[in-house]
Write a structure and sequence with these properties.
It is a single chain. The chain is of the alpha+beta class. It has 2 domains: about 200 residues, no CATH class; about 100 residues, PDZ domain (Pdz3 Domain, Roll), CATH 2.30.42.10. It is built from 11 helices and 8 strands. It has a 6-stranded antiparallel sheet, sandwiched between helices. The chain has a two-stranded antiparallel ribbon with strand order 1-2. Helix 4 packs antiparallel against helix 10. It is elongated. The protein starts with a helix and ends with a helix.
Length: about 375
């Protein structure tokens, strides 16, 4: 079931991205030869009008094959896109990507990125309308959060909390030992309680997912996890539900979209810098297999969590495509900028070869990340 949910999310994100390219190209009267989900080899396809729609074997993305995007006029004639008797003024050549103004080419390339940002905005907004989990202090002005709980946002591996079975997303509803208990559970009160009960067994009551049953576990704090103070190895936050009217939901959805985009861009920048400096690790990267597991965790907490997860992936997809790397939209935009500066087209063979190499590197990287995801399962 998790795989099916993940595939549905992936289809929506890819379709949104490629639809941005597709409809923008159509708006500028550029011919689109193929709209593909996944990467070749092709499994099956069908043709409607001048465009073929295909389903391919590698479900890691998608593509829109735009007429004349990577060929010069001689190449177009050679491969038979144009009749050798036709002239550059004929309709087909006039509808090729390369013969459109640079600003139109740039808009076609950037449209997929914009589509993913817009989709994330829509998903966050629908989440707010349905009731989106929100940190206390981050709620919109004038709106009070409902069902506020102390929620675990991360668990340190091999920590007392991890060994006791606590997981990200668990709501802590009771904390006590043989003599004392907490009446108002907050991050500060829990931290104080743990420090004052060093090396003493503490009983935690928690709720997991949509199940309202209270689970109990006993944990003994340990020193040296992050500093010299006793701790159980969790990061926590007070989180409630923000359910907003339509207009406010779209406004707050945009604010959240901008905030998440900024945080994601900074995180990706640090990941790339660490990789260049030799400090990077695949443990901080999740591929398709890992995301199936995350989808499973999100689905346990409800539909709104799935919306938020899909929005996060949509933003990640947009930011990754901005990177000026061959085969990505950012790389093609970089080529356009170089052509604009030099006043002539890049050598098509150089551009095509660079994009092929870039695509091969991306596929290899994706396979390595997928392999690492599989290894982590065992």
């Amino acid at each position: 079931m998790n795989i099916i949910i993940f595939i549905i999310i992936l289809i929506v994100l890819v379709l949104a991205h490629e639809a941005g390219h597709f409809f923008t190209a159509k708006a500028f009267k550029i011919r689109v030869d193929e709209f593909g989900f996944g990467f070749p080899p092709k499994l099956f396809g069908w043709k409607k009008g001048e465009t073929e729609y295909s389903i391919n074997a590698l479900p890691f993305g998608g593509f829109v094959k735009i007429f004349g995007e990577s060929m010069d006029e001689a190449d177009l004639l050679e491969v038979g896109f144009l009749d050798k008797k036709e002239t550059p003024e004929k309709v087909d050549l006039a509808r090729s990507f390369m013969h459109k103004p640079k600003y139109q080419q740039a808009l076609v390339l950037v449209a997929g990125i914009v589509a993913n940002f817009l989709l994330a905005w829509l998903l966050f907004s629908v989440g707010f309308m349905s009731g989106l989990p929100t940190s206390v202090g981050s709620e919109p002005s004038g709106y009070k959060l409902k069902d506020v709980n102390l929620v675990i946002v991360s668990v340190l591996e091999k920590s007392p909390a991890s060994i006791a079975g606590l997981k990200t997303g668990d709501k802590i509803v009771s904390v006590k030992n043989d003599k004392n208990f907490i009446t108002d559970i907050t991050p500060n009160s829990l931290k104080t309680f743990i420090v004052s009960n060093s090396e003493k067994e503490i009983e935690f009551g928690y709720i997991r997912g949509k199940n309202k049953n209270i689970n109990l576990t006993k944990i003994t704090p340990a020193a040296g996890l992050t500093d010299n103070q006793p701790a159980i190895g969790i990061a926590m936050d007070q989180i409630g539900t923000a359910k907003l009217p339509v207009f406010t939901a779209f406004l707050e959805g945009m604010k959240l979209n901008i905030s998440v985009t900024k945080g994601t861009a900074i995180g990706l920048y640090r990941l790339i810098v660490d990789g260049i400096q030799g400090k990077g690790s695949f443990s901080s990267v999740t591929g398709p297999v890992g995301m199936v597991g995350i989808v499973g965790d999100a689905s346990k907490f409800g539909f709104v969590y799935l919306l938020s997860f899909a929005a996060l992936i949509s933003i990640n997809l947009a930011i990754i495509n901005i990177i000026p790397f061959p085969a990505l939209d950012g790389g093609r935009l970089l080529f356009l900028l170089i052509e604009k500066i030099k006043g002539s087209r890049l050598n098509p063979k150089f551009a095509n070869m660079t994009n092929m190499i870039g695509f091969a590197i991306l596929i290899i990287l994706m396979l390595l990340i997928t392999y690492h995801d599989v290894v982590k399962l065992f």
